[in-house]
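assembly run, all chains below
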Amino acid sequence: MPDQTARGNSKRGFDVAVIGGGMIGPALSLGLLARGLRVCILDEGDDVLRVARGNFGLVWFQGKGFGMPRYVDWTRRSASLYPDFAAELKEFTGVDIGHANPGGLELLLGEEELAHRQHFIGQIYQQGGGKDYEVEFLDRKQVDEMLPGVALSDEVVGASYSPIDGHVNPLFLLRAMHTRFQQLGGTYLPQHRVSGVRKNGAAYDVMTEAGTVGAGKVVIAAGHGLKELGPPLGLDIPIRPQRGHILVTERTKQILPMPMSAFRQTAEGSIMLGVSAEEAGYNDQVDTATVAKIAERAARTIPALRGLNIVRSWAALRVLTPDKCPVYAESQSHPGIYGIASHSGVTLAAVNAKVAANWIAGDPPPDEFQAFGVERFDA
Amino acid sequence: MLKRRHSNAEVVRITVDGETVEARAGESVAAAVLAHTAGATRTTPVSGAPRAPYCLMGVCFECQMVIDGVPNRQACMIRVRDGMSVTRQDGARDLEGAPGGGA
Amino acid sequence: MSTPDYDIVVIGAGPAGMAAAHEATNLGLKVVVIDEQDGPGGQIYRDVERVAMQRAHDLDVLGPDYKYGFGLVDGLRASGVRHLKGHTVWQIERDGTVWCSDGEKAKRIKARRVLLATGAMERPVPVPGWTLPGTMTAGAAQILMKSAGMVPAGPIAICGSGPLLLLIADQLVRAGADIAVIAETTTFGDYLRAAPKLPEALFGFEYLQKGMAMRRRIKAAGVEIASGISALRINGTDKAEGVSFRQGGRTRTVAASTVLLHQGVVPNTQATRQLRLEHLWHASQHYWYPKTGVNGATELENIFIAGDGAGISGARAAEASGRLTALQIALSLEAVGDADFALKARPWQSELKRHQSVRPMLDALFAPPAEILNPPDDATVVCRCEEVTAGDVRKAAALGAPGPNQLKAFYRAGMGPCQGRMCGLTVIEILAAAHRKTPAEIGAYRIRPPLKPLTLAELADMDMPEEESAAG
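ok done. output:
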């Protein structure tokens, strides 16, 4: 058994060292532990970038995978695995991650937005070569029927809808995964910021601020950390930060029956308002102009929300690849070292735990991974 | 439950949970309510636990009440006004009673 | 930044803010004071003008230290400085832009310098039952006396330690209130620890004398002071019905319908955290405070901090600090020359030193007890807003949460309307104990705007000029 108390300067004997304790690392780890592997998660300290904290809680299907049909498939797979994933976590940890699949909407203001969205969704459908793409368009009347009791402004002309869309409580998901990880015998090592990885015979030494960790395989699920850690290990994956803001209201009686791309009411009652995308480098400070834009659009769309108090706002940095689709890659120069880049850690938690983990464990890659390699970015 | 010391402030009439209460000009709503009742002035949205004002200076947010129809207002930060209506904030707020941005 | 509206925006109209605004205005600078209360005075001199108008007899109950506030309030008025009363600051940007709201409209103020004079707040006192109606801080009782002329009706239990404990008890006795017991956690050992600091405490001896005189008056009124108490809990189901505590080896229960808690005050660091300023940990008084240099300067050239918000030193020190910080800002804006600065600053530097000199003794005397900092009972609510218990925090530590922000992610602690004001220090202590680290190593909640809630309407209706929106 590897040293779980994590005392001393050197921890060895892990089958897999997973770098990153956010949405992706723990999910993969659960799958690896289910295979009987000895796994540790290496995490940083408390007040660092932490992409995982910056999320809306959507388990979102519609609109993903533009230009990449296999990403559509991967997302659909995750959504279908989610209910079992949630039930399992609840059964073993007692934590209900609040997964629900009521379908989801993207509300459209004005005819131009509607036309734009129809074109965009239409293209995703066409790229699927005739395969069923579960996104449809609703007119205003149909949207009103989907959202009883929610008075939408006149500007809302319709919406794109998918029955596959859903949401989850991302904080409970994180806690449940960490709890299950510990239950299955995983070793969680916070404040072990990784500076590099070295070959050590057939295995690897992961150098951290708290000493060296030895493992047979290494998974880099470190969000933006991949940019620095990846290249020396043959994983030069082009990622960039893209900032997104969220506003959160005070707890309110339940009024939104389903999640929307820019509105989600949590089980606790807070309503989360999005969405934004700014190219701001690694600056995760809240930008007032962006807050104003989100607030203005939210108020335009559902004026009845105007009187709600905004209790907090935050900004976080998505991990974006050039085509916004994920990368799951094994290094050629360092076999056994894997790199993952994705901005949909919540949506993909189920498929990461149930499918992607098996690839890391040594199974042949899932079909979708043909599209997720890093070579696709070679000009 | 609080008692008032002598004051030459004028009397202000407000309603607290439907009951007419005599307050004094210059008092905060929280003070006026505490002079009237000893129990909970709100119940929490998390568990329905009874709460009442704690810090009286705007830090703790325990004093949230529905004031003139607007939910979740900090009663310790608002002075009484003749005709004001104050009710207990029970759990999470309603959407209604929230006009476009002002009472 | 485009043309600033003011030279200085002073946030807070307590002693530091009032003194600073007065000083700066006298030096010819264009100043605005923003405060969320609808009148000047902060908390210590709260409603001093109203008391004089409506309840002048209460001035004697409240004492000479309170009446001192008149001078500061008069000075503020005489200076003619613009005072945005009833305005809540909800965001401060590092370039000196201050966002506030009057409850209806979000407003933006640009100034060349920002002076934070946001003061202190009561240290949270997480004991079992502290969330019951009828439980308040000692400061709350003072505010009720000052702003509403009210005292608690039924039997009152006053519990804890700190300068305010005896003061409020003394005031309540003089107001004829019914005090069931004063249960102080201060022990004889605390006095022994404080004794060596007495010589350097310029007002230390007078302070102790004052305290002894208050004790005599309180006892003469028939009120019991139980000292060296521990294991405090507040009893009741729907509201406070009394307290229990251990004293001298036995457990006592005292009936009370109002419980006043106090364990000193701590700097309110929401604004300084939102600005991402560096903070230091105060080892004996167990709080975070923003790092300041000479006369309130920070690592940001345009941001200054004065008063208790920079570290607890009391109202008189806050006034001196406000004056000095205003002078320092004026120097940086070339509104005062070096020689003039030195001349004006000198008396306030002595004043500051005099009033700060008693602090080490007070800090030693009133060190918060370990069981208040790190509540032993797992069932004790720590985050009042989200109802997260001490046990939950310990579970998060066991799950590996290294600090308050990961705790927040696991259990929602710090996510309620108060945004960690009531639970911040406690979660830091519990995590520190669980991880066998110092609180300084544990860190603090990341604070984001808005500092206080404001409506979606206000945010949606904000005037955002085109050219400003590019600012990152």
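The helical segments of chain B are 29-34.

Residues 26-90 of chain B form one domain.

not gonna interpret more than that til we talk
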